[in-house]
Amino acid sequence: MGLLNQSARGYYESRDGIQNTGDEFYGSYQFTSLENIINQFIIAYVGEDKLIPKIKKSDVAFHAQRALQELSFDTLKSCKALEFEVPPSLAMPLPQDYVNYVKVSVSDKDGIKRVLQPASKTGNPLAFQQNADGTFKFEDNSFQADQTLPFEEYGITSTGQISDPDGDGNIKSKNPLPQFKKETRIKLQNTSGYQSKYEANYGPASGAGLHHMLINFFTANHDIEVGMRVYGPGIQPNTTVKSVGATTNGNFPGMGILLTNPQYEKWLLDGQPTITNPGAPILGSTNPLYYKTEELIFVDFKRESDTWSKFKSNQTNEEKVNDYSYDADTFDLTKGQRFGLDPQHAQINGSYFIDCNEGVIYFGSSINGETVILDYISDSLGTNKEMRVHKFAEEAMYKCIAYAIVSTRANIPEYIVRRFQKDKFATTRKAKLRLSNLKIEELTQILRGKSKQIKH
Q1: Assigned domain for 112 exists
Q2: pLDDT value at position 172?
Q3: Does residue 403 sit in the same domain as residue 279?
Q4: Contacting residues for 231 by C-beta, under 8 A, at least 6 apart
Q5: With the CA atoms of 223, 228, 229 and 234 taken in that order, what torsion angle do they form, in degrees rounded to the nearest 10?
Q6: Range of 258's domain?
Q7: Is residue 444 part of a domain?
Q8: Do residues 3 and 66 both lie within one domain?
Q9: Of 8, 125, 214, 429, which is the most buried if we count CB atoms within 10 A?
Q10: In this predicted model, what pLDDT tens digit does every residue of 244-272 receive, in sequence order?
Q11: What is the DSSP letter of 46?
Q12: Do both 350 and 370 map to the same domain?
């Protein structure tokens, strides 16, 4: 019985009947699905007079997924690659299914991948805000407005405290405040000008279609940017700045900002089923428009230490990638001028480092605007489509599953466990040799370079 279950036309044209439109899955015959691996393992290894008399299919599926993960890390060929353009922030999030990286390259003007070097002597460490005397800063807000209002403390430490039991309303964080890219604090009490006691007006009704998602300030020129998280009395959780410079009014002529949050956006998508906007700032019962003595906090959650800030602004050891062609004689005129240079940094392609805790890859200043390719390893369990095994490693999968099962079962003789351990090792090694894909013509091409005379 043949293994091909579709015609050649169906393979080349797929469902839309047109070739090369993106919905085809060319080269799929070299793989077998994880589901087939599980079914075939049960047929071959499970049953009466077999090594494993009885086992649940869910147990086999678990060990099969673990085996696929382990083989993906050091045996199966990694085909994952992501191309992106480095933004001015010089930081990009790691891919959703990222486990580890193979290499990071920049694509030059000729489409050649130039390998970037990791900057191992820098990073973006966790930094806390500090007071003038050097001590770490903790959040300590005195909430003297309407005590019935929800007030989330800063939001960064998320201790969940609303107010102290004695009723003084102080909000105190349990952890130091991290140092983020930008933080703006605005006192709600204004000591000068018209409406001298109040700096901000929450949720004014004026402005068609704004649905009370507005804050007007009495003064202007506050350092607020779109996307910053907003914290303060009556502000709903997960509220951010949607736009800056919105409508103001006569009593608060300084500046205005428009807010948004998930509750508000869902309410809009649902066609505004209720009259009340669930995401609007909650107004106090005793003083519905103004809040005294408290402050609004605007935070950009991008974490930026002084070390990272200095690194990204430094261009001492890096050049623009596209300034030199790989066939040019640019460096022929610099003989003797590079003496004493540390060879690990003797490259012009650029540098990067990965912050695994934040899940972000940071680049040097010379990579701004360049096209970068990240070759990386995943565990092959991200989607159903990628849960597949190359046929060169199919036997290794069976032995890995069998060893995992017998090694975790009681009353299995030790010599049986050791036998399957050796079989697992042997088949994994054989799969790795097969997948290395060595070709004699390619080896010959590489060895030809060994005959080139190297001048010292």
Answers
A1: yes
A2: 65
A3: no
A4: 152, 153, 154, 155, 296, 297, 298, 299
A5: 50
A6: 126-304
A7: no
A8: yes
A9: 214
A10: 987 777 778 888 899 999 999 999 999 88
A11: B
A12: yes
Q: What is the pLDDT of residues 351-386, one digit of tens each?
A: 888 888 788 898 888 888 889 999 998 888 888 888
Which of 304, 56, 21, 299 is closest to 183 using CA atoms? 299
Distance from chain centroid for Cα 287: 43
Residue type, 414: E
Pair type for strands 214-217 and 80-85: unpaired
Mean pLDDT per 10-residue segment, the chain (456 residues): 73 71 71 89 88 89 91 82 88 88 87 85 81 82 50 46 43 73 79 60 66 86 90 83 82 87 92 87 55 72 76 59 49 58 72 85 86 89 85 91 90 89 93 86 81 61
What are the Cα distances from residue 395, in Å, to 47, 218, 387, 426, 434?
Answer: 19, 73, 16, 10, 12
Among 129, 128, 86, smallest CA distance to 106 is for 86
Decide: pTM greater than 0.85.
Answer: no
DSSP-derived 3-state class of residue 58: helix
* Cα separation values, 313 from 89, 366, 434, Å: 11, 9, 46
The verdict on 165 and 275 lying in the same domain is yes
Question: Is residue 54 domain-shared with residue 21, that is, in the same domain?
Answer: yes
| Same-domain pairing of 106 and 192 | no
Q: For the chain, what is the total number of helices (H) and then of strands (E)?
A: 8, 19
- Structure-block tokens of residue 427: 């088949």
Residue in this structure with the two tokens 């080139």, named with its chain if needed: 452
Query: Which DSSP helix (H) or strand (E) runs through 355?
Result: strand 351-355
Rounded to 10 deg, the angle between the 57-74 and 34-45 helix axes is: 120
Could you count the other beta carbons within 10 Å of the beta carbon of residue 331?
11
**What confidence score (pLDDT) does residue 73 get?**
86
Max Cα distance, the chain (Å): 92
- What six digits make up the tokens of 277? 């906007």
- Whole-angstrom Cα distance, residue 456 to residue 280? 73
Helix 414-435 to helix 394-407 angle (10° resolution) is: 160
Q: Which pLDDT belongs to residue 418?
A: 93
